[in-house]
Amino acid sequence: MKTKIVILGAGESGVGSAILAQKKGYAVFVSDLGKIKEKYKNVLSQKKIDFEESRHSESKILEAETVVKSPGIPETAPLIQKLKSRQIPVISEIEFAGRFTNAKTICITGSNGKTTTTLLTYHILKNAGLNVGLAGNVGQSFAWQVAEKQHDIYVIELSSFQLDGMFDFRADVAVLLNITPDHLDRYGNSMQNYTDSKFRIIQNQRANDYFIFCADDEIIQKEIKKREIKPVAVPFGVSDPKSPGAGIANNKMIININQKQFSMSILDLSLQGKHNTYNSMAAGIASMVLEIRNDQLRESLSDFKGVEHRLEHFLKVHGIEFVNDSKATNVNSTWYALESIRQPIVWIAGGIDKGNDYSMLHALVKEKVKAIVCLGKDNSKLHAAFDGIAKNVVDAASMEEAVKAAYYLARNGDTVLLSPACASFDLFENYEDRGEQFKNEVRNL
């Protein structure tokens, strides 16, 4: 009898898991409560993988010996609770795929900067000629790549939801960028639960693995004191560099690791701003662990193009600059965005609020923001937070309305910033859809 595996969710990670499971001889059933995208449906049909959409057939799902769950399905969902009460293991795609590869893994997590650091690390390794795959929250599904095109190294962006479903998986190099309140609605509104989730990135690490972390992050510093850290600990921060570690001295970014030193002027980094210096340090350390040459590292750190929907300086219309930061789905990301812009700002914000505390933005809004355009089905929390702090707070029911309102409120020399601080699912498919719609409406002005 073939081992029965059920995949819940038929997006990129679910379909990748199904392909790998089929290849490894499992009896596979894919179930999605929503509609499955055409391109994924075609793949499942072509490969003759059994699937259903717009429902979960419990009787079939509860027959599984293992369940691979999409990161979007919360642990508290009744179906997941039922599976757990029957002791049926529920794991993530990353955990599943990790069982079938001996490739080296660089795993990157944090509340902010994950995607930028992951893509930058991938860019450095790829430019150095290594056989490297990009996976996790970005790129193609890890499981799909393990099934169809093995790489020697994977750079994997991991959300806390993916980490929650990882048990035996081990990162050769773990990167923890920062921990700030995010997704607390999924963690019983407990910051400690969320922090524990992030620290799962170092579970199973051995003495010759590496743990790269931000020494300037208070929560990380506090947690490290409470835990036994087995791997080589490599801190980075804006003070003088440790050894091993990275830091800033005389406007130079300096990395010390494995008896080697790398230095580069922070003015030559392609990613500017304090938060991006952290991202560059983390990617630089991870690359040096894999013995990338200094000249290759310097070149890649200076020519990286950045990430779409993350502080993307898009267009100028009549002297007004439009910046697309749709990827900012939490307050901390938006703090970085507001902090990095020098011109007066018209800020487009809103969406599905994840239990946000906007008070940390008050000082920046007072100083820099001349108007706020609230774009969401329910903007009451934004009004409660900013009425009286910003001069103008207006509502918009669509991206077209929001961009037009922002354009009228802005003047030559101002910046219109889309940095929602919220999830996008009330009016958009995802943050990419939100960012694309923003850019389209700007083009139409």
From TrEMBL:
GO terms for molecular function: ATP binding; UDP-N-acetylmuramoylalanine-D-glutamate ligase activity. One of its GO terms (biological process) is cell division. Residues 108-285 form the Mur ligase central domain. Its EC number is 6.3.2.9. Residues 309-422 form the Mur ligase C-terminal domain. SUPFAM superfamilies: MurCD N-terminal domain, MurD-like peptide ligases, catalytic domain, MurD-like peptide ligases, peptide-binding domain. Pfam families: Mur_ligase_C (PF02875), Mur_ligase_M (PF08245), MurD_N (PF21377). It is found in: Cytoplasm. It catalyses: UDP-N-acetyl-alpha-D-muramoyl-L-alanine + D-glutamate + ATP = UDP-N-acetyl-alpha-D-muramoyl-L-alanyl-D-glutamate + ADP + phosphate + H(+). It comes from the Bacteria. Its main location: cytoplasm. GO terms for cellular component: cytoplasm. Coiled coil: none annotated. ATP binds at residues 110-116. Keywords: ATP-binding, Cell cycle, Cell division, Cell shape, Cell wall biogenesis/degradation, Cytoplasm, Ligase, Nucleotide-binding, Peptidoglycan synthesis. Belongs to the MurCDEF family. Cell wall formation. Catalyzes the addition of glutamate to the nucleotide precursor UDP-N-acetylmuramoyl-L-alanine (UMA). This is UDP-N-acetylmuramoylalanine--D-glutamate ligase.
